[in-house]
Amino acid sequence: MRAHWCRVPRPGVLLAVLAFASAAAAVDDDRTRESLLFGITPVFLVDQASFLDGWNRYLSQRLAHPVRFARRKTYAEMSDLLLNGELDSAWICSLSYVLNRASLSAVAIPVFRGEPYYQSYLIVPAADTDTNGYGDPVGKVFAYVEPRSNTGYLYPRYAIAQLGKNPNRYFRVTFFTWSHPDSVHAVAERVADAAAVDSYIWESPKLSNPALTAKTRVVDASRSFGFPPIVAGALLDGPEREQLTRLLLGMSDDAEGRRLLGLLHLDRFVEARDDLDDGIPAMIETVMPVTN
Length: 292
Known about the structure:
By secondary structure, the protein is α/β, with parallel strands linked by helices. Helices cover 34% and strands 19% of the residues. It folds into 2 domains: 11-113 and 228-273, D-Maltodextrin-Binding Protein, domain 2 (3-Layer(aba) Sandwich); 120-222, Periplasmic binding protein-like II (D-Maltodextrin-Binding Protein, domain 2), CATH 3.40.190. It has a 6-stranded mixed beta sheet with strand order 2-1-3-12-4-13, sandwiched between helices. Strands 8-7-9-6-10 form a 5-stranded mixed beta sheet. The radius of gyration is 19 Å and the shape is globular. Residues 1-33 have low confidence and may be disordered.
């Protein structure tokens, strides 16, 4: 049985610590201090250093343990750290969670505009009035987010397969942007003719940066999926996992928690339910075997 929270950080973990976090959120030189290592990917739409500094203080004070954020560029890297026991918890994509459900447990999921759901939006430049769905953009330049993204990769490929087409040959050019905000920018600036993005990411900048989303247009929306969860790795013991869950679920009950949630345009966190991810396994079975 390991000690409370986390092992002494290993060198590989120290390399993953957020470069942009403030001094309060950075790993200090005292390698002997225990901490909860929490992984994130670059999806935040706010001042990242400022938000994470505040969230770090909030979590650390209420857990009575230091929290350290670790950032990786991709969901695959984040999943590997969790599965290898190098992270205690992380905020990952719903696809990554479904693929690793046997080894990970969902701690909490966010609520956005009253619902714990999100969708995949197909977006095109606002000036494009000819594209009205996946049946139209044949031969165009398409921006995927990354291979482990549900809304930015799995669903659009599934939608194309449902048309009886091969997703690997449907577009003239495809590329990865590696983040949903960058996919929105790619379409807004006409680097890509179309992209599939997380509805939360598209709607959130619409709240804070209408000039960006005004350059794009939503032409297709998927069914609803359970919002990307915060998960715990196998080494986060039951009582510790429950303590983290209670803290996240209670953020909307105090002023500082509500302030932090507001920065992300979120209402609150709620308990995760596996049934919120219904539909993703079927899409995996349909799309993942397509290799030609």
